[in-house]
Design a protein that fits this description.
The chain is about 45% helix and about 20% strand. By secondary structure, it is an alpha/beta fold. The model has no long low-confidence stretch (mean pLDDT about 95).
Length: about 160
């Protein structure tokens, strides 16, 4: 029986902290789905298809394991996707107690709805202060985001002047 997990997120854009969590989660499961989801509470900077492509490139460039699948989901509940692919675990990266407070109710509901457990992984401390929102703000004001994101993302943000 395969152990399948899903790392969901808006990944707008994917950061080095995200990649750290993805890499460590890939070592814990036989198959890991990195799932780009639409967050209706956020105004997206990068189209979903482009985010999927950037994550795929970042995973490849970082030499991450072949058990990682990158895709998107915009219809229905996250646990519906988990059920469709046979995943019993969601992996969430958390940076602080604020993230824990935000993620805990969702974890409980996901377990109640479909028996899908949630595992919280802490990022490497070098990346714990970085969020996609921060990267978007720095990029939008013309700052250098290269220390916070994979090269493919930095190049994309630089070339698109977002």
């Amino acid at each position: 029986m395969s152990r399948i997990a899903v790392v969901p997120g808006s990944f707008d854009p994917v950061t080095l902290g995200h990649l750290d969590v993805i890499e460590r989660a890939a070592g814990l499961f036989d198959e890991l789905h990195v799932l780009v989801v639409h967050n209706p509470d956020k105004s997206a900077l990068i189209p979903i298809a482009q985010r999927v492509s950037l994550i795929q490139q970042a995973v490849k460039d970082a030499g991450l394991p072949a058990n990682i699948r990158v895709t998107s989901w915009s219809m229905g509940l996250l646990v519906d996707y988990c059920t469709d692919v046979g995943a019993s675990v969601l992996v969430k990266g958390i940076r602080s107690q604020v993230d824990v407070a935000y993620e805990t109710p969702m974890a409980i509901v996901n377990r109640n709805l479909a028996g899908v457990e949630t595992i919280f992984l802490l990022p490497d401390p070098a990346h714990a202060h970085v969020s996609s929102s921060l990267v978007r703000q720095v990029a939008g004001l013309g700052g250098d985001v290269a220390p916070y994101v994979p090269k493919a993302v930095a190049d994309f943000l630089q070339s698109s002047r977002v």
